[in-house]
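sorry for the late reply, my laptop died twice this morning and i had to redo everyting from scratch. anyway the thing you sent over, i finally got around to it. pasting the sequence first so we're on the same page, its 135 residues, then the predicted structure underneath. double check i copied it right bc i was rushing
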Amino acid sequence: MNEEYMRILKMIEEGKLSAEEGAELMKALGSDPSADGSGTEVGYLKKKSSLKGKKLRIMVTDVDTGKDKVNIRIPMRLAKLAEKMVPGDAKAQMREQGIDLSEILTSIDELSDGPLVDIDADDDKDHVRISIFVE
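ok and here's the structure:
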C-alpha cells in the first residue's frame, strides 16, 4: 500500500476524516496501480459483497412504554474496516481475554439477517429489552 493510502488511513484512525471521506480520497488517487482498491482495506471490503448493506443494530427498549432508549445502526463494512485499524498489541491483549475481533466479525457476517441477542433486564427503575441483530 503506498504512502498516500497510509496517510488517509491514519487520518481516518485519528478522526480527522470519516470513512466515507477517506474512501473518496482513495478513489480520487486513481493513478495508483491499485486504484480499483484491490490492495487496500477499502478494496477488501468491496470484495466482501456479503457485507454490503448489512448493519449491526443495537436497540434498548423500555418494555413498559415501548419507547426506544437506544437505537444504533453500525454498517458492517465500517466495523470491518475499523477492526483492521486496531493496533496489534491491543488485539493481542483482547485475544488473551478470549476476544478475537476478526472471528466475531466473520461470524456475524456469516449469519443471515435476524436476531443475535435478546435480553430482558429489570432493575428497581426500568424494565428494558436489549436486542442486537443484523439487518
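The chain is about 40% helix and 25% strand.
thats about all i looked at so far, will dig more tmrw
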